[in-house]
Each structure stands twice: as C-alpha cells, then as structure tokens.
Amino acid sequence: MMKEQEIVFLNGEFLKASEAQISIFDRGFIFGDGIYEVIPIINSKMIDKEEFFERLERSLKQIDLKIIYSKEEIENIIKELIVKNSLKEGGIYIQVTRGVASRNFALLKGLKPTIMAFVFECEIINHELSKQGVNVISTADLRWKRRDIKSISLLAQCLAKEEAVKAKAFEAFMIENALVTEASSSSAFIIKNDILITKPFSNEILPGIRRKNILNFAKELGLKVDQRAFSMKEVYEADEVFISAATFLILGVIKADSKIIKDGKVGFYTQRLREKYVEKIINEAF
To answer: What is the pLDDT of residues 23-55, one digit of tens each?
Structure first.
C-alpha cells in the first residue's frame, strides 16, 4: 500500500499537501494536457535516474512542452522532497501540465507550465507479493494511439484496473487485435522454452524503464529475447509470466483469467530477474 507524504512541491514552492492549490483552468485538469513520471526511491536515493530523465524529456518533447527547470534543478527538487519527508523507500510522482488558460483545444503558446511533485512510501525491495505472485485478467485495450507518451490521461487504464479489482485480480492484461499490448499499470512478459517474449517498443506501448533493464538482465541469464506481441493463449501456456513497474520492479504472475500458469508458483527466471534488479538498485543506493 502506498502512503503519500505531507510536503509537496508545486510551481517553485514546498508546501503542505493541504495547502497546495491548482487553478480549475489548468489544462491538465480540463484536457489531461500533461505528462508524468514515477521514480523509485531506495535508501533515500533515486533509482534508474538517467532512464527517468531520458523518458521525461522524451514525453515533454512529444507534446511540445518546455519547462524552465534544468535536469540538475529537477534532481535537487526531488532530493529536497526526499529530505523534507524523511523518505527512505518508495517513490516520487512528478507531473507537468501546459499550465493555466481559457478553455481552448489548441496547444496555446507562452503559458507557464504547472509542475507538481510528491513522494510516497511503499516497499519495493521486499514487496509483499514478490514471493507468492499475483493473478491477472484480460480486458480490452481502450487507450489512444500514442501510448509511448507518459500522458496523465489515464482513464482507459483506470477502467482496466477497475475490471481487475472487481475480479479480485492484481492487474489487467490489455488486449488489442487479439494480442496483449501491456498491462494497465505495468509491462507484460512471458517466458517459454528459455525465451523471454515481450512486445517491441512502438507508439503502442510505454517505453518501460524496468523493461529496458530486464531485457539486459535476461541476456546475462542466458535467456533469448523475442520482441513480439503474444496472445492470452500463450500466457496460459507459458512457463513463466511476470509484470514490471517502478513500485515493485518485477512480480511473477501465477494465474491468468482463472487459469493457473505452469505449477502456480513464481518461476525460476522471474525470481532470478528480480534478484538481478534488486542487486542493481542496491548498488545504486548504498
């Protein structure tokens, strides 16, 4: 369970969460005109830092949004948030919108972007589900066509997650043209015959930071990598299935659409990949 902290950052100020206010005319509120990022924090330090900045800059560029803060200034804001909230392990949520303006669908120029960030506590290294695994369901992918942009417009993902909640599942695998794109708030992977299979990067999926590292770890473990889309039938018949995201790194999937995966336990490679990731972040944080 994630627990938000008391001090937040908003447009150059550190404030109590209860005192932070944003205009009802902010384009993020009216149009979902903005982007966001989540950064894991271990031992009060940012993890996967370079990949975070790379994806943040990419998303901003894709929607033609410029901010006044340099990379170093953003990092200092994050560090100060960590200190002010005494955060040891968890994450940072940072959001940038185009700013405040009269309602107009055009991407208005000359606005002052709204920049907000807050931290939250959660267990990443010793996530409560890392050993027992999770179950997933499949659902239709209702998202727009630019999923490579980490947009704050997440209604389709919320609907998919709600289907999972109603089915008492942890996550939902989203389906388009009879194939899995990704999960509602994570990247999806299967392993079959010592081959790691995951959808290749395109505008159809988010360029997952954890995904990028996992592909490298897989090769170190001797797994072949096949970047292609896969079906739910392949999920049901896989040797291993897992998901990845900032707040838990890697979690094994042991059941999909009520069908038990293999022997119903977190697979060997899934465990080894998670161990590799934990080793990486510990080296970065300690």
So the answer is: 999 999 999 999 999 999 999 999 999 999 999
Looking at the DSSP bridge assignments, the partners of residue 240 are 191
* Nearest Cα to Cα of residue 206 among 152, 269, 146: 146
Q: Of 131, 145, 150, 262, which is the active-site residue?
A: 150
- pLDDT at residue 1, as a whole number: 60
Sequence letter at residue 157: Q
- Asked whether the beta carbons of 191 and 243 are under 8 A apart, the reply is no
Task: Judge whether 110 and 122 are in contact, CB under 8 Å.
Answer: no
pTM over 0.90: yes
**What is the model's pLDDT at position 3?**
67
CA angle 194, 197, 198 (to 5 degrees): 155
* Concatenated DSSP letters of 4-42: E-SEEEETTEEEEGGG----TTBHHHHH--EEEEEEEEE
pLDDT for 222 beyond 80: yes
150: closest CA among 257, 38, 42, 285? 38
2-16, 40-54, 63-77: which has the minimum mean pLDDT? 2-16
Smallest CA-to-CA distance from 168 within 243, 255, 231, 246 is with 255
Q: Which two tokens stand for residue 84?
A: 């002010």
Q: Does residue 66 have an active-site annotation?
A: no
Structural contact between residues 185 and 156, judged by C-beta atoms closer than 8 angstroms: no
Q: Say how far apart CA 210 and CA 242 lie, in whole Å.
A: 12
